[in-house]
């Protein structure tokens, strides 16, 4: 049982770390001379332009920003609640609250990655200053980490739903 508990804790911490990296790192859309995420566009790793209201599609990026942040916060809250429930729940009870919060985190990261997937072309191609730069790019590792974090938080949420507190 102790090995299972250690695995679940490590799995949850890994999910949170993936969410932090995917939210913060500047590699959602990358090319040879640029990197772009939901916060800024950088050329040659030195010249960074913050995405602001003048950026067409800013409200879409704000939705991605908000859902990624919310997903990270919910994942951390789920971990804290898991630790509290670990010592508070009676034997044989399930970690339902932890599961619900972790599945909400999963939903948020899925929404963020799906919005970015759907609107990425509109975001980068509708802004003339970045069009020539970002037209020849590919999804970066932070974007892929967001989808991996979706899978991890989903599996974690299901594990908490199935898991019963035992001796």
From TrEMBL:
Keywords noted in UniProt: Cell membrane, Cytoplasm, Golgi apparatus, Membrane, Nucleus, Signal, Transmembrane, Transmembrane helix
Signal sequence bounds: 1-16
Coiled-coil intervals: none
Topological category with respect to the lipid bilayer: Multi-pass membrane protein
Superkingdom, taxonomy of origin: Eukaryota
Transmembrane segments annotated in the record for this chain: 63-83, 95-116, 139-163
Compartments where found: Apical cell membrane; Cytoplasm, Perinuclear region; Golgi apparatus membrane; Membrane raft
One of the GO biological process terms: neutrophil migration
Gene Ontology CC terms, in alphabetical order: apical plasma membrane; cell surface; cytoplasmic vesicle; Golgi membrane; membrane raft; nucleus; perinuclear region of cytoplasm
GO molecular function terms attached to this record: integrin binding; protein kinase binding
InterPro entries: EMP-2, PMP-22/EMP/MP20-like, PMP22/EMP/MP20/Claudin, PMP22_EMP_MP20
Function: Functions as a key regulator of cell membrane composition by regulating proteins surface expression. Also, plays a role in regulation of processes including cell migration, cell proliferation, cell contraction and cell adhesion.
Family affiliation: Belongs to the PMP-22/EMP/MP20 family.
Subunit record text: Interacts with PTK2; regulates PTK2 activation and localization. Interacts with ITGB3; regulates the levels of the heterodimer ITGA5-ITGB3 integrin surface expression. Interacts with P2RX7 (via C-terminus). Interacts with ITGB1; the interaction may be direct or indirect and ITGB1 has a heterodimer form.
Descriptive protein name: Epithelial membrane protein 2
Species annotation: Sciurus vulgaris
The gene coding this protein: EMP2
